[in-house]
Specification:
The chain is an alpha+beta fold. It has 2 domains: 28-186, no CATH class; 190-216 and 225-240 and 264-347, Substrate Binding Domain Of Dnak, Chain:A, Domain 2, CATH 1.20.1270. It is 56% helix and 13% strand. It is built from 11 helices and 7 strands. The protein has helices at residues 3-28, 35-59, 67-75, 105-119, 124-131, 170-182, 200-215, 226-238, 267-289, 293-318, 324-347, and strands at residues 78-86, 95-102, 138-140, 145-156, 162-166, 190-193, 196-199. A hairpin with an 8-residue loop joins strand 1 and strand 2 (95-102).
Length: 352
């Protein structure tokens, strides 16, 4: 063989072997501190917050919390990977690290300010104390910083990226705890109570007054909830109808007044309930049409969830009935009330 040719062949073979060895080394040994690990943890936490916030908002009949606001707060979390250690065994490193999650101070303060509207009679600190410590591995410093110990194994993915396999479901638990912390932050600025809009600050004030009044009164066998006092009394007093002094009407209820049994609903009352419901439907359609198309797109998913919630609540209201007429009456009242509340909410987005 020609010596120059043989030398070239040997050099080429050596280079190919070296490249192959490096590729195998890279495929078999991925750093515990690879950027993909932090990204994977962040994605997992944000996905959990998104799911939990939307589920809470969908199941909350009061509709106090804006799920999108909670999700946006999740995106502002400061998440870092610290104290990374490798307990490598062969080509599959077993890794440990401490995931730090810091809630920005303004978000934490807003959550603390609004906590009573979500958690009364519990408080946020007490809830977090229950959710952290013990076998969860999650620690909280009472000032917005969470620390979660992670056990994981990074491995090469088919797309030349990195996949991270976690030893347990601690990331999911962490995301759920963070959601619980952020929910009060997501409380809307205008709340619907007793069919009337009430500013969040005023709702908090009235709730505090109601809670204080109850704490000063010996507890009866069935003590009322301050939330019920707030919704049934305070809101209607603050936002009285503009029909003259002292002429405010009581907020609409789901059932007829006790002195008029629902089973004895007259045809005229049922017709009036139908008429009110038709008017409410027409009003909400007009309120929707006044929204900018961009806002409509943003609210479309929320609007569908609201319709689902309304239908579910009103079916439950109708189920209490003792007759066909009573069931229709209760359903219409419920539908009309929730529709009017939704109209007030949509007005906050409408074009002046």
């Amino acid at each position: 063989m020609n010596k120059p040719l043989a030398l070239v062949s040997l050099i080429t073979l050596a280079l190919l072997t070296a490249c192959s060895d490096k590729a195998e080394e890279k495929a078999g040994s991925i750093s515990c501190n690879d950027p993909a690990v932090l990204q994977s943890a962040r994605d997992s936490i944000l996905q959990t917050i998104k799911q939990e916030a939307r589920q809470y908002a969908q199941n909350d009949n009061r509709q106090y919390v804006d799920a999108d606001k909670v999700i946006a707060a999740g995106s502002d979390l400061g998440i870092t990977l610290n104290e990374v250690k490798s307990n490598s065994n062969g080509t599959s490193p077993a890794c440990t690290a401490v995931l730090n999650i810091q809630i920005p101070e303004p978000i934490l303060q807003a959550a603390r300010d609004n906590q009573a509207l979500v958690y009364y009679p519990q408080n946020l600190d007490g809830i977090l104390q229950q959710r952290t410590g013990g076998n969860t591995g999650l620690r909280y410093d009472n000032n917005g910083l969470f620390k979660q110990l992670l056990n994981y194994t990074p491995a090469p993915a088919q797309n030349a990226g990195v996949t991270v396999n976690y030893a347990d479901n601690k990331l999911t638990n962490t995301g759920q705890t963070l959601t619980a912390t952020l929910l009060p932050y997501g409380v809307k600025s205008i709340l619907m109570m007793g069919g009337k809009p009430i500013p969040r600050e005023e709702a908090l004030k009235q709730l505090a007054i109601a809670a204080s009044a109850l704490s000063d009164t010996p507890a009866p066998s069935s003590q009322p909830d301050p939330h019920d006092i707030l919704e049934n009394n305070s809101a209607s007093a603050i936002f009285a109808p503009e029909t003259g002094a002292g002429s405010g009407s009581a907020p609409e209820t789901l059932a007829p007044k006790p002195e008029t049994p629902a089973a004895n609903i007259s045809p005229a009352e049922l017709d009036q309930a139908r008429s009110n419901n038709q008017q409410a439907d027409a009003d909400i359609n007009r309120a929707w049409e006044r929204l900018d198309q961009t806002v409509q797109k943003e609210l479309l998913s929320e609007q569908r969830d609201w319709i689902h919630s309304k239908n579910s609540n009103c079916r439950a209201a109708a189920a209490r009935a003792g007759s066909t007429e009573e069931a229709e009456y209760l359903k219409l009242q419920c539908d009309t009330r929730m529709t009017r509340e939704r109209i007030q909410y949509l007005k906050g987005y409408s074009i002046p």
